[in-house]
Amino acid sequence: MGVACALLTACVSGSAHGALRLDTHTVGNARHAAALAEGISAQGATRAGASILVQYAPIMLALMQSHNAVGELEERLKACAVHADQQGNARFFNNRPPTRAECLEELAQDECGRPITRAMRLGQQKHVLALECAREVLEELWPAPFSIEQRYRFYPTARFVETISPEKEASIIAQGCTEQLWGSIKPDIVLHTDRNLLKAALTLDFKFPCPDTNPPRWTPYGDSSPHAGKDQGGVYKEALGGRAMMISPREIVVSP
Q1: Signal peptide location in the record (predicted)?
Q2: What does the alpha-carbon distance between residue 118 and residue 131 come to, in Å, rounded to a whole number?
């Protein structure tokens, strides 16, 4: 049960109480976000010297072969975060960001009795929009394979990593055998250099702090985890290699 609680806390969608209810119009808006981002990217693509991706993940330049191409990818992905944030706030808060009190409001409880806050629910809904947008951007701009919400089983002592298919993951959760997912990781986006899907050129997570004055942060692992004492970003790097970065509506943050 402890493992199930941890998984449900990390991914609210595992609970019936946390299920998304986005209408067709809202999800459809995400499909236009890549186009909307072009106005932002036109300004940012020429700012090659300021590109965080080039500074901290120079392999991106080798793969994309142009400072402007890397800059455009960065700006378009940042625009996905901004767009998702705006859409979520427009839908639920009349185009304003939620207050700290609203973020902390408890809406329901998961199957383990842990609270589901408005911040958790809103962040999950914004993730749906951001990842739909990011998929379109990557299909257009990224020259190599990429993975979105791929779950990996990682054994840090053995230094062994393997993928878990979406079908297998769904079956495990449906059967309640979530101990099989203990210690697994599920980044938002993994950019690969080639067809080796166990290695990352760069790993990215969207973060939507609530309230928006909070800084984005990696989720730390608890004492019951095989990754105790570490956070998401550190484990992503250890498991998949490459840099790990957070994309929020306000900034991109690089894992140490």
Answers
A1: 1-18
A2: 20
